[in-house]
Specification:
Elements: H1 2-15, H2 18-21, H3 32-48, H4 53-79, H5 107-125, H6 129-155, H7 158-161, H8 171-186, H9 201-230, H10 236-303, H11 308-331, E1 337-338, H12 339-347, E2 357-360, E3 365-366, H13 368-387, E4 397-405, E5 408-416, H14 429-442, E6 445-451, E7 454-462
Parallel strand pairs: 2-4
Antiparallel strand pairs: 1-3, 4-5, 5-7, 6-7
Helix pairs in contact: 1-3, 3-4, 3-5, 3-8, 4-5, 5-6, 5-8, 6-8, 6-9, 8-9, 9-10, 10-11, 11-13, 12-13, 13-14
Length: 467
Amino acid sequence: MLVLLGVSVAGGWRFGIEPLKSIVPGLSTMKFNTAVGFVTVGIGLALAGAERRPFRIVGAGAGIFVLMLGAITVLQYLIDADFGIDQLIVHDGGVLSGSGHPGRMSLLTAIGFLLLGSAIVLVAMATRRLEVIVGHSLAMFAGAISILAAAGYAFGAQAFFGIGPYTAIAIHTAAGLLIATAAALMTRARSGWLEPYADSPAALALLVRLLPLALAVPILLGLLIMLGAGLKIYNAPYGFALFIPLTCAAMVIAVLWVAARQRQAEQVQLRYERHLQLVVAELNHRVKNTLSIVQSFAHQSLKNSGSAEEAGKAFEGRLTALASAHAILTRENWDTVNLTDLIADSLDVHNDTGTRIAIDGPEIPVSPKTAITLAMTLHELATNSMKYGALSVPDGYVRVRWRNEDGEFLFEWKDCDGPPTIDPKRNGFGTRMLTRALASELDGTARLDFEPDGLRYLVAARARAEL
């Protein structure tokens, strides 16, 4: 906005567009050097808040230019000299009220630029919070000048923007200084005066939005009202009378906006708390289920193993499979997981050459509960195949297929090119799990066929869109 303001006024001087030089006929013009200063302030502030140091260095350079522009102009006033900078680029032959020197910005404007330039340099190069705060404080002094001048225009108090000789400030100069002050205070504000609110994102966001409005709305509203009076749309007393109801309306809008933001924050907090309660309840349920599964693993591994070492390996393998299933579900935020991905991830550790396991079937979403049961089933099948089946010999492989067909979901595991299979005389934990767990989960049937060329495991259930 500052860059646009400066470029517009500079264009007014370059092409002789009087309304851009002085918004209200008969009052002060914004000088060309002032316009250049606003362009540089805008660039400096934009770069001073950058994360990368080279950009901040360029921003500090812009601040130094603004500081020197203000300092040289102040020095011209102090020693009553002319260093040739006032009309260096454009000639000022106007007769409107101003500093008393053609092309020279007012003394108050020059002081404002001196302060803003110093603030930009400090904020851009600061490595400590104190340096940022000092920079913001200097910007606030410049803001005091702009508020004083803007209030004078807003309420028709000439003494406010013409305190003494050579102090008249154009309306849009006062507005520009006000905007520059607000922008400076918001540059690296989280490292400076807003740092105490860093632990409260809601309060910080509210301050960042509300404080510039609280600073600018009354003054800018007054400027707009007096602009109408200056353009002879209505007289100054009528404009002053308008200020009170319009300011009240603006404040009401601001209060409603704050209330809406607060309500939104409370609604978000309420939804978060409800979600947290659901998450805790769900987590408690999952932990209980997982502990029950682990307890069953421990019991069955010890019961059905011939030695403590064998029991330990069986228990560890089942825990690893359970952890893998949990990892897959966590990756999907415990939502449905794709059946193909679930099978591939569960069997990846056994597919050492990438050709030992062939997977074929349509994409079907699987619920978390079914996913765990299926992952444990696949672990038992793979473990059995590694010990006795196709995966125990170099040329053996496993074919896993599934499909929804004629209203029925069919799942098949087949060991291929493995050693001959023998129907065991005793059913262990693995066999009982294969024939009961997944079938019960899907409300279907399961069977093991010990065929001469390898084990076949079949599950049949009613076809469904989601397992």
